[in-house]
TrEMBL record:
Keyword Ligase applies: no
PANTHER family cross-referenced by the UniProt entry: HTH-TYPE TRANSCRIPTIONAL REPRESSOR PURR-RELATED, LACI-RELATED TRANSCRIPTIONAL REPRESSOR
The keyword Nucleotide-binding is annotated on this UniProt entry: no
Domain HTH lacI-type: 6-63
Gene3D superfamilies xref list: 3.40.50.2300, lambda repressor-like DNA-binding domains
Name listed for the protein in its UniProt record: LacI family DNA-binding transcriptional regulator
Amino acid sequence: MSKSKVTIKEIAEMAGVSIATVSHVINRTRYVRPELVDKIEKIIVETGYQNKIADKERKLLVGRESTIVAVIPNIESTIYRDMVAYVKQLVSVQGYQFLVAITDNDLKEEAQVLAGLLVNKKVAGIIHAPVSDVASNYTKLIQSGVPFVCVERNILGSGIDSVEFRDREAIFKGADYLLASGHKNVLFFRESTDSTTRDERTKGFLNALEKYNINTNDANIVDVTLEKGEDDCMLAIQKALRRYRPTAVLAGGNRITLYLMKTLRDMGIDCPGEISVVGFGDESWSELTYPPLTILRRDVKGLSAKAVGMLFEKINTGVAISHDCYANVELVVRKSTKMLDNGPFGDKAAAPDSVVLTKEEKHRLKAGHFRVAISFHYTGTSWAELHEKGIREELEQFGIDVVSVMDAHFDSELQNAQLDGIRLQKPDAVIAIPADDSRTREKFQELSKVSKLVFISNVPEGMSKNSYVSCVSVNESENGTNTGRMLGEYCKENKKKKAGFIIHGAAFYGTRVRDNAAERIIKDSYPDIDIVTIRSFGEISNAYQVAKDVITANPEIEAMYVSWDRPALLAIKALKELGREDVAVFTTDLDHGIARCMEEGIVKGLSTQRPYEQGRAAAAVVAKSLVSEEQLPKYVGVQPYQVEPKQLRLAWKEIFHESMPDRLG
């Protein structure tokens, strides 16, 4: 075989690999196993093919076919700005010059740009984000023989090479997340321009509706014409929000996300209190908003690398050989969304600020000399202190006295005796956390005949809906989902696959909902994670031995969910004694001990109640019930707070309303 005439195809045959693999070794465009690299490079040297490569590089560097051009709609959008930076880096390494041409998303402007490039002998290849998807608009480009690859957008037709995002899958992810969170009235904003991208995103939204048996004819979809400018776009968004009154919104583009957030701000709409938002594109500001924005984040770097690799294949071999023409889009859950929760009787959760007292009602409260008693299941935690603080501060502003605070020490018999004592005090209302959901029912039922009852967290089983005013609780479904998702993301990022669950064995409504939600999100969204075992504890003190037994029997466990902080601390004690501090722990509720373990690194994430806010909400419901005949919500849900190690000090201030101490007890 003549050394001067050897081809890349023959190199591939001699190495027993594909042409694409040889191309990747030559151009360093993708990872190839070191042993294959050595084999191919040895054949290249033996056949003299390296002289051909060097000759081509010399020609490129002196001017002929030495330039790669990115033809894009604009430079304002983050995706194109980032893509240009990545592509420039990748092509410069190969010795090519790099230029950018802007079309302003205008078909005529684009045609002029392409016409100039096709007659320019220096142009080796084009990375193209087309204005249109109609092939007839690009006849000259397609027939020119100049290598090109479409990015982010595509031209419909055979033989058109492209690298796109999984747009249908991405919008499906966002819509599915909102629908799974209990939102039925979801509004989708999409760009008005005709394109395959728009069509794919729309299909993703409709597919999600179909999954939840929502008639797609009833889909709430609004087109936003970006070319009209910011003011017109924001006006269109404002009109749509007023017309559809959604509980959740999904944005179908970068600029739509920005305009949507500005519109919500200008309208004074609380996110996520009134509307949950899933944005698109992961602009640099999305993590810095308040609240940080849940986002569909596109892998622009991956898109750029795939496109450049495909283009070099076409330049070097004449054809593109690629089995994966898509870059991923990831759902990043932050704090702009909330789950819609249901209470014990299926009542939808009302927001705490939905309970509002009129000026007249406040006057009547102050003149009424009302009295309230508190019955806690346990007062020995900072949680109970915050509950009580919130209750007292809310009641004091209305002149309502707290006549007693009882601590049942998790003993249902003791709480029953205390409830008898409270009944003798004849308070106007009682705020209570049941020590047991079944054994205290009878006493609470008796108390309900003489005092208004407001429960925190749980309602005793079997109590009728009309025997209490309301139940105030953290959104336990979201609490568990948050914790499960953090465990799932940790395992995904760190390539962990084995998890153990330690849950509450008692039949408390709140903990049951929370534990089930954590398990469900792992099974639904993280199929690669194996929940090796689920063990329960009845008494909190049993959690230590349960954790010890779980790890001893299942040493392969790499991450652990524990229902809440107190049993989690006992589980951590067991892990430390077994020398298994490598097991990542995820739990609910922030306290001194858990914060210390998070600083130590064994607790990787948690979702926490807001006890002070729950106390204030319970007191507000009591106050309203004493002077109003208005039907109050049977279930008031307080959104939980998600905590990761890097956010610990901020979270502490949010939950405890004070700075975190330098030394945690």
